[in-house]
Amino acid sequence: MDNFFVVDHPLIKHKLSIMRNKDTGPKEFRELLNEITLLLTYEAARKLPVMDVDVETPIQTTKGFMVDDKKVAIVPILRAGLGMLDGVLSLVPNASVGFLGVFRDPDTLKPVEYYVKFPTFTDEHQIFILDPMLATGHSMNHAIDVVKKHGGKNITVMSLISAPEGIKVVHEKHPEIEIYTASLDEKLNSHSYIIPGLGDAGDRLFRTK
User: Which of 70, 109, 162, 163 could form a disulfide with 134 if both were Cys (CB 3.0 to 4.6 A apart)?
Assistant: First the structure.
């Protein structure tokens, strides 16, 4: 699939297998999600804007490069996306952070927005939208629409687990969006949960069930 990337590093596979285990508790679940996000960010951040700088080595002055992280923005989709935020910030600590609250209506399965707080986006910003589960794709499409409405143009999606149905929905509406994920799972079940998945990421992060 175009603009879809599975980062199947052995360390990611190992950590994700532990996360899938129903007996893994919230503390370990949060730590593993943070670690996997860091590894995903390494791949997803290849197009980050950089600045030329002069570096004084012990031998001589040479040309170097610095990430212009003031042109980077992170948008976690509340609430599960919060579990991925620190993993990205550990690599780009001066990035701006916006928040988008969306939940899935249990009857219609459509996204319902309840909170938006974004920094100012420019044409030069590289924006990462975070959500551990890319299931139906409707919430992600809503998030992309809202970011674009606020001026965002260079958008990358990062997810822990993706379903084929969700990828199709996102790319039908936003074919230019790059999606980075740790796993392409089999499908959605009748309740639109990813199979085999790992359950509800938000509930497992915050032990709300």
Answer: 162
